[in-house]
Design a protein that fits this description.
With 198 residues, this protein is of the alpha+beta class. It is built from four helices and nine strands, in the order ααββαββαβββββ. The relative contact order is 0.15. The C terminus is likely disordered.
Length: 198
Amino acid sequence: MIISFKSDFLFVALMVSILAVVSACKTHKDTASEPPAVLQEFPETGIFFQDTVITGDSMHCEGRILPTLYRLMKADYPRLRTYLLSVHYPAKGEAPDTILLAVPTPDGAFGIYRIFPSTVMAPELAARYPEIRTFSGNSVDRPSEQIRLEITPLGITAMILTENGSVMIDPFCKGVSDLILVYHKKDLPPGAKQPFEK
């Protein structure tokens, strides 16, 4: 009887463990496939960023100094670039076109920003480098929160000015446009500069 009881107990424990693993896997899959909640309120903005994980040698990037805390994301850069370039620069005296963009934040959420083309380069430089485009904008929920965004053939960089400091978005590695880091600037080691800032 004792042996039978132990066997039954072990069998039940094993089944519970298997069910727990299956349930966890299903929950993870369902969560990963669900679109962020921002799409429900702002369906006109696409989602171009998805959380991802890389490990081992893939985490090495020469000259890259990682923040102490960050969010690693995979960017659908070709679609994002097409979406951003759909906004045309206004003619002189015209109000700029705007689009909504869901931008990842370090805390695992997304913020919605209304952005428009902005010119920071001299006209002759802009004509020489048409593949570089710059944008400005504000948070839909917090209008005082500003974003500056740039797209180039190397990827996307952005800075969000919040009341809690600057949030940075930049390529994980120079020349890799589909992996980005999202982090608070204050989480970089003191004096740290990224390869593309040198």
